[in-house]
Fold this sequence. Notes:
heterotrimer, B: 515 residues, two-stranded antiparallel ribbon
Amino acid sequence: MAIESQYYLLLSAAIFCIGVYGILTRQNALLFLMSVELMLNAANINLVAFSFYHGNLTGQVFSLFTMALAAAEVAVGIGIVLVLYRNFEDIDVTKAATMRW
Amino acid sequence: MPIAGPVEALLGVTLLGAFLVFLAPDEYAGKLATAVSLVPVAVSVWMYSVFDGAGNALLGGTLAFESDLGWVSLGRYDLAWQVGLDGISMPLLLLATVLTTLALVSSWTPIDERESQFYGLMLLMEASLIGVFTALDFFLWLVFWEAVLIPMYFLIGVWGGPRRKYAAIKFFVYTNVATLVMFVGFMALVFGLGDSISTFGMAEIAQALREGGNLSTLAGLAPADLRLVAFTLMFAGFAVKVPVFPVHTWLPDAHVEAPTPVSVMLAGVLLKMGTYALLRFNFTMLRETAEANAGIIVAFGVLSVIYGAMLALAQQDLKRIVAYSSISSMGYVILGLVAFTPHGFGGATFQMIAHGLISGLMFMTVGVIYNETHTRMVGDISGIADRMPWAVGIFVAAAFGYMGLPFMAGFAAEYLIFQGAFASTVIPAAPLVTAVGMFGIVVVAGYLLWAMQRTLFGEYSLATDYDVSRAPVHDVAPLVVLLALVIVLGVRPGLVYRMIQDAVNPLLHGGVVLW
Amino acid sequence: MAGAFDFVPAIAALPLLAFVIALFAGQYMPKRGAEAGIAATAGSLILSIWTALTVAGMTGSETFYNENLYTWVAGVADSAVTLRLGVLVDPLTALMLVIVSLIALLVHVFSLGYMNDEGETGLPRYYAGLGLFTASMLAFVFSNNILMAFMFFELVGLCSYLLIGFWFREDGPPSAAKKAFLVTRFGDYFFLIGVVGIFATFGTGLFAPVEAASGTMESFPHMAEMAIEESETFFGYGAQTWMTILGLLVLGGVVGKSAQFPLHTWLPDAMEGPTPVSALIHAATMVAAGVYLVARMYGFYALSPQALAVIALIGGFTALFAATMGVVKQELKQVLAYSTISQYGYMMLALGAGGYVAAVFHLTTHAIFKALLFLGAGSVIIAMHHNENMWDMGGLKDKMPVTYWTFLSGSLALAGIVPFAGFWSKDEVLFEALIHGVGTEGTLGAMFLLAYAMGLLAVFFTGFYTFRMVYLTFHGNARTDVARDPEPVRWNVKAPLAVLGIGAATVGLVNMAPVEKLTGLHIDFLHQWLDGPEEGGWPDALSTDLHHYEELLHNVPHVDPAYPIGGEQTTLIVSAALSLGLALGGVLLARSLYGVDEPVEHTDKLGGAKALLTHNYYQDESQVWLAQGVTVPLARAADKFDQGVVDGVVNGVSSVSLFTGSRFRRIQSGVVSNYAALMTLSLVLLLVAFVVLGGVA
Lengths: 101, 515, 697
């Protein structure tokens, strides 16, 4: 007896919302990155769940790609965070607003 | 059909030259650019001497130096590399090449930073101008038309006076918006013509429109209304370039801020793009609409003449005086075009050439005086004739040319326009309207003589603390060449008027009656 | 075999060559270009005399010439007019050519004394200007169509500008030059409309028909005559009205150039130029161009009674008006300037009143005696070290006898004292005006009589101001040190004076019409010259003869002569006696007031009129006000409007864009959280919208 798809979707939505909440409320760049990871993985859950539901492996393969992409993204993200720290001696994203108007 | 004709050669040489000059070191850029620009002069003079075109390019005439190559397809329209010359564009091409060379020589003294970029941009502009006057496919033409703006923007914005950024942006945005308006008008015609055309060839569109009946209803506009809307939009768009009152205010700012050689090109050639386009589009393609609204159009022309002249009277800056008088002179072109008579069209086209030469001469002379005195304000200079006799002599000659002194090109052009307009059957109360427009010749004498009296004559004094001496030979040489051209064309207008007449006469035949 | 007529273009080409030589090589020549000018004008004079002899039939070849020589602009389409340059030689042309080239030559010679000997700089420019002027003036004279005439008319205006402003380092001359060009340009504006109108109406501007290979090309006066006969309409006007309009438009140029009221104000100012220039341009030739033009196209003006009335009235009024202003002037050249205006008024009066010969006669004599007076004034000015105030002179009679006697000859001619030239011509002008005024019915005749009355009155003033000038300058005791010891003048001043002095005394003999009428001797040579042979010859070919004009005057405006007092002879004697009496009255009054050892100013006796006269009836003020009080403020207002309203709208559009942009860019706060919140909010809104609208159909 498999778990029904809507539970996966609920889980995915919940994780996504947590990620969004994190992005909206946190100021620390590292927490930003984590939140983005959460949102990304929420999407992954959806992919895997629908893949399972349709009996089609394409979705699962796609989620592997997404994970690889996420790894790359983290690498870039951490790089940005480092630069941010170097320039502002802080990793608070709201402080880096010098390029506005 | 040859792949590369003289027109392609002209474009190729000028573009290649521009590229070379960009790379050249600053100290050689001016001489190199001048040398390069002599090639287009030579080629265009040769083209003039073997010119074998007949009739109007858009109305089934024989084109000289034609090439017509497939380019790309856009939907159901084929865009073509279609270039060629007729009696209207040949003189304008000559004007563009000759004036560029002279403007380049006159840049040697005033331009002393970023020379290679300056001269490169000048050549780039020349290439675009050559394109504008030779392209016969609308899209190709539009590309060149817009391409002119880019070098001009930088030439004003980088090498200009204190308010150069304001002037450059104003010039660019104003004329660019105008192009958009014109583009909408033209596209309305294209879509209205529907299946009856398959290319953007200006000749095909012109002939389709003049045959009449091909225009379908578009966006709820009946064919006659569509013509009127398209005419209005196109006229508004081109009027900015000419410029016609009340869309002229970019011109004085651009002229005042631009360095002298750029002013020469602006007044000498760029303004003619507007009247050239009016002639090619509005007055060729939509003849009947122009005729039906001649009263309104001529009002704009005459208003520009008088209003421009009055404004020139109020100015204190020599360059502003010449700038406003350009508005006045270009008003005559409108007056001539709308007359729909042989001498009206011919005189208007001749006026483009004549004014190109004379206003170029005027700006250059002001520039030569500025090079020595570092001021252009009427109140700052007095009695400069004492120190710069030859430059002032040429200034006086140029001013009288501007006033329409017989045996100088301006008189021939203005007289022919007046002759054409007076006899017009299209303009309401033609003799009276012409007489009103002619009053410009009195006002022009007023402001030029007044300005000359205050700056050139009287006891020598100069507000700026510069040691004024005679201008160097390479400053005066272009003036002499231009003055000679003005006199030659004034004594023998037939040198270009013959081919102009040949090209404008077909405009008066054919066409449809709509109302 | 090349005849004289083949060389007519060379009459103008020679001085043009002199212009080029003087301009570019003058500074390397010992006389700074005068050599070229003298040689060229001498050549022109010889060719002109040859031309005149040919016209007189003395060389046996054809006696007239009218050819198109150069197509300036070819009209290709059938409705486009072709504009040509050509040469017309008839007796009027020949006469004028001789006058112009003679005076040009004398003025060139005189300039050696006035300019070179006085050590002026910039002489190549001076001689170049004189050369260009002479060339343009001569070309104007032999123009065979009205457009060509206009073109050279403008060129002489340019030369006038350049020469008036010769001393450009001072303030006065450039201003006077500007005024001269501008005022005449105002007249030329109307002239140009007239030219355009004539071409638009007739398709040609020929003064006289041309026999071309393709057939006869008709002249526009002839076509106008035909049009009036056939009652055609042009531009919505009847032929007669339209011809009047065109005639009056062309007259605008005439009034400007010949310094007639109300465009006369430039001429007195033009005296800022060198005196030889005043003699050549502003007395003898260029100012004559306007009158000459009316004479040239007299066949056209004779068709319009209104135009004739206007010409006569302008002429009569100007003659009187200018003469009264000449009465109070202090400076020698100013008196002469106003007298020039006044004398050209007489010519206009004659032309308007149907006295074609009288006008040409007065043109001829005036050219001689006024050039003489100006050159004489120049001689005095040299002697006085360029002081022109007559009150600083006096007693020059004994110190410069050649100048005095020649000047006196010119003055007697100007005042109209028998038998000097001016008497004969002025008398004929007045006589013609009188008999045509009496003989013509209706308003036109009344106008002629009014003009005649003004002309007659002006004779008195002419006599007065002329001899006031003579007495103040040459008689009495010397009033300053310079006048006691004037600078001597050389042969190059005296020779031209002598030639012209003899001319002023004798040139009237060419047309002693009164003597002819009283005695029956056929000595009215000028009359015969302009009338031509009875049969064939140039009158048939060109229709520019006196006989034709008289016919037109009789047929169209019905201008006819009548003799109010007894017969022709009695009227003649009374008229001549009247004008001579008035002239003598003026002379005697001048003698009694100023012909004393220590003359004093009597102008205060004029009371309020003094201010009016010394201020030239406030004509200058009113025109300056028109230019500086009306036009310039109007231009400033237009500038304000342009900068404020027209450009204001443009800048307004850009300000609105900038303002909106500056508000909208506040959204770009630079804080990532804000962007994220916006994105989330937008997504939610989008989802809600989908839900509410029920998704995409």
